[in-house]
Amino acid sequence: MDESEFLAGYDPRAYPAVAVTVDVVALTIRGGGLRVLLIRRAEQPHAGLWALPGGFIRPGEDLPQAAARELAEETGLSDRVHIEQLASYGAPERDPRMRIVSISYLAFAPDLPDPRAGSDAADASWHPVDKLPELAFDHDRILAHGLERARGKLEYTPLATAFAGERFTISELRGVYETVWGVSLHAGNFHRKILSVPGFVESTGETTESGGARGGPRAKLYRAGDARLLHPALLRPAREEQIR
Amino acid sequence: MDESEFLAGYDPRAYPAVAVTVDVVALTIRGGGLRVLLIRRAEQPHAGLWALPGGFIRPGEDLPQAAARELAEETGLSDRVHIEQLASYGAPERDPRMRIVSISYLAFAPDLPDPRAGSDAADASWHPVDKLPELAFDHDRILAHGLERARGKLEYTPLATAFAGERFTISELRGVYETVWGVSLHAGNFHRKILSVPGFVESTGETTESGGARGGPRAKLYRAGDARLLHPALLRPAREEQIR
DNA sequence: CTTTGTTATTCTCATACTGAGATTGTCTCA
DNA sequence: TGAGACAATCTCAGTATGAGAATAACAAAG
């Protein structure tokens, strides 16, 4: 049955109202770890619990636009931020008050400033993803989905450069992978791999001003290349448990 | 801003109504090609145009449930069908009458019977994806997205077995890949690869009743294995144009 | 200023995976 | 009965990966 044919025969307002929101899983790397932006709920239900930033779509506003707006309301930033649709959630009882369908978005950004709590939120801050508080609604599921998507996209897209600054060293890029995947990678092999994937990074010809904090030579600086897909991909160490 | 805080301060019914539908991209292999289930619209707007099957979500009905129902209404089938969420579309003007947010689902099945047109549809049939009619709304975009997703999932999941029957030969499985990807694959290498990926297929110990229609020995029959991910993945021949 | 420890970068080497082509033997059809 | 089709297996070269080591530049402590 097509939606419009349905519309022709039925009045949608005869149905219980459905509300559509966007929720944003915004990830960044801070303090050596992967963090997600959460806001503390000021109102019932789940008042006092942390939740993903999000809100109703507005008339005339497209979905990605709504997600970018919600993110900007909390972080003040909208450019330099990669944002993409994640998934939608619409279980009838996911919000106790009414039927709410949520379109979730995934956002990545280099180290962002501290968020400012919106007028409607009691608090807003970046939380380490490995030490999360209890979340409101089904936001734990949405976040888990977002993390898994982010980890996967690191494999076959240059997404990691979106977590790094304008210019970065190979080691910094490796740090992104290690942080997001939660593993440690072989420095030599990683270096070889990054430089051998066409279009992943391009040299700036510059180096860091000084060596690392604890020694070592100055590292060459790179910027993101023009590849949209990594080929061959940079695969995570095999996770046997995930295969079956 | 969280959705519930918003709710506390604003009455969503004060906003123009938003309707939520599911649309299904149902793919199967028929007549040697990849085909998608389309229904012909009986009502305005876009009356007479072909469209993806879909319709409003019902109160108390979860999203995947709604998608399965819509598919079953057209095909009569609900088991043996793999179904997964694809993406959501909510551009303000995508339906001329009101704000409609559509959650799209992707379904795969072995060769299915001819669809029966729902009472609301003028016609329903399987269309070759490489020879499509003009589609209603933004359904061409949704379908393109679904095809790309299906092609990608063939690489790293055992999805191809969902297009094959209960038991299948390696050659039939290769035919699935060749049909969906639109390429021809090296039979020997494909054979080696399939048998070397743990859990992709398992032997039934049986063979086909006779050789191929034009000769050749009887082929061994396999069934789908227990792997959920293919490791290593079965990658498409490199598509340079898609990398940049 | 010298020593020690760290880190960037490059190499080596063994192993695994892939693409291309060829071989062997079974089976259908003319 | 012969020709062609096709399943299944094998070979070989090229490429990619994992692990470890070597080289050299640099910071910080003595």
Tell me, rounded to a whole number, the average pLDDT of chain A: 89
Compute the number of helices of chain A. Answer: 7
State which percent range the strand residues of chain A make up.
25-35%
Oligomer: homodimer
Biggest sheet character of chain A: 7 strands, mixed
Which CATH class of the largest domain in chain A is shown? Alpha Beta
Largest interface: A-B, 73 and 73 residues
Count of β-strands of chain A: 10
**CATH architecture verdict of the largest domain in chain A:** Alpha-Beta Complex
Give the SSE order of chain A as H and E letters.
HEEEEHEEEHHEHHEEH
Q: What percent of residues of chain A adopt helix (DSSP H or I)?
A: 25-40%
Q: What class would the helix/strand composition of chain A place it in?
A: alpha+beta
Distance between the termini of chain A: 36 Å
Q: Which residues of chain A form runs of ≥5 with pLDDT under 50?
A: 1-10
CATH topology category name of the largest domain in chain A: Nucleoside Triphosphate Pyrophosphohydrolase
What is the domain total for the residues of chain A? 2
Which of globular, elongated, flat, extended, rod-shaped describes the shape of chain A? elongated
The rounded Rg of chain A comes to 21 Å
Question: Would you identify the CATH H-level superfamily of the largest domain in chain A?
Answer: Nucleoside Triphosphate Pyrophosphohydrolase
